[in-house]
């Protein structure tokens, strides 16, 4: 709770420092992409990357080479526990908030750095305990909030007032998203590599 309060205060402080002319230049963004994820654990668990996906909306604003971006995404984070044959799917409403540094004007490469807070909607294990076609609902052993760091690189191309953007992002989860029902050995943190295509208006 304390960590989430600190993050909220930092966000509010950051928004208060945004110049009015930067807000006037805000642009809407449509986002979609694919991801590859696995859980970080503190115990002996052989995990492999598993595909996931993300989609949603964002808003970007700024002046010159420094811009800011806030997205609202549905993000399916994933993991494959290869030695047991179990796959995990963690569905979240994810809100990345990032600084975006453009290296040149107009069409240009860029860098991303910031954080992420997310509300967890679902957490499933496939197959479940009842056989190959079953699904085990893990929400009783899953926290409601996830948070972490985000870094990335990308390139944007401006064509006739519309900007096409391709970015690669790494989401480094800091929260232990599971382990609240006494099973502390099964504590997971998320790790995700994402490739996203964006369209700015």
Secondary-structure map:
Blueprint: H1 2-16, H2 20-24, E1 27-41, E2 47-48, E3 50-63, E4 66-81, E5 86-102, E6 108-126, E7 136-137, E8 145-159, E9 162-173, E10 188-200
Antiparallel strand pairs: 1-3, 1-10, 2-4, 3-4, 4-5, 5-6, 6-7, 6-8, 8-9, 9-10
Quick recap:
This protein is mainly β. Helices cover 10% and strands 62% of the residues.
What key phrases describe this protein's structure?
201 residues, mainly beta, Porin, 2 helices, 10 strands, elongated
Overview of the molecule:
With 201 residues, the chain is mainly β. The protein has one domain (2-200): Porin (Beta Barrel), CATH 2.40.160. The protein contains 2 helices and 10 strands, in the order ααββββββββββ. The protein has helices spanning 2-16, 20-24; strands spanning 27-41, 47-48, 50-63, 66-81, 86-102, 108-126, 136-137, 145-159, 162-173, 188-200. Strands 1-3-4-5-6-8-9-10 form an 8-stranded antiparallel β-barrel. A hairpin with a 5-residue loop joins strand 5 (86-102) and strand 6 (108-126). It starts with a helix and ends with a strand. The mean pLDDT is 85.
Biggest pleated-sheet summary: 8 strands, antiparallel, barrel
Question: Spans of 5+ residues with little confidence (pLDDT < 50)?
Answer: none
CATH topology, what is it called?
Answer: Porin
The side-by-side strand order for the widest beta sheet comes to: 1-3-4-5-6-8-9-10
Number of extended strands? 10
CA(first)-CA(last) distance: 36 Å
| Number of domain units | 1
């Amino acid at each position: 709770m304390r960590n989430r309060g600190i993050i909220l205060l930092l966000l509010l402080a950051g928004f208060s420092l945004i110049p009015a002319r930067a807000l006037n230049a805000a642009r809407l963004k449509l986002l979609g992409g694919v991801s590859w994820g696995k859980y970080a654990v503190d115990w002996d668990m052989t995990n492999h990357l598993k595909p996931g996906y993300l989609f949603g909306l964002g808003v970007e604003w700024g002046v010159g080479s420094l811009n800011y971006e806030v997205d609202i995404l549905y993000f399916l984070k994933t993991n494959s526990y290869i030695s047991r044959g179990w796959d995990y799917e963690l569905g979240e409403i994810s809100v990345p908030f990032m600084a975006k540094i453009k290296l040149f004007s107009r069409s240009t490469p860029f860098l991303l750095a910031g954080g992420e807070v997310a509300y967890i909607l679902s957490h499933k294990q496939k197959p479940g305990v009842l056989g190959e076609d079953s699904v085990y609902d893990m929400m009783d052993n899953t926290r409601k909030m996830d948070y972490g760091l985000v870094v990335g690189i990308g390139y944007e191309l401006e064509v006739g007032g519309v900007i096409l953007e391709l970015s690669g992002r790494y989401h480094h989860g800091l929260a232990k998203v599971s382990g609240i029902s006494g099973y502390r050995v099964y504590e997971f943190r998320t790790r995700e590599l994402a490739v996203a295509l964006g369209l700015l208006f």
